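Lecture 7 notes: from sequence to structure.
We start with the chain below.
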Amino acid sequence: KAQYEFEGQRLRAEEIAREEVSKQQIEIAAEAEAERQRRIAQGQADATLAAYNAEAEGQQAVLEAKAEGYAKLVASAGGDAKAAATLLMVEKIEQLVARQTEAIANLKIDK
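Predicted structure tokens for the same chain:
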């Protein structure tokens, strides 16, 4: 009877050991999957951030170029900002007149 009980305990111990190994394998696989997903998410976040940074740098460059151009325009107008603004408006009048002419031509007037 003692040998029978010993054999039962040994079998239970083996079963517990197998279950523990299985549990650890599942935990390791779950941790690996979680880490994989974290790395994917981090990569996507890094890519998004890089895109936003590139866009911001591009906008910054455009704004700096415009500011430099306006500064040169004001300087060429003798430092008079109003005269520089007038020069800009004169430059745009041709486009404004063309658009107004197009708008008037597209009006449908009932006769």
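Points to note: The chain has two domains: 2-76, 79-111. Residues 2-76 form one domain.
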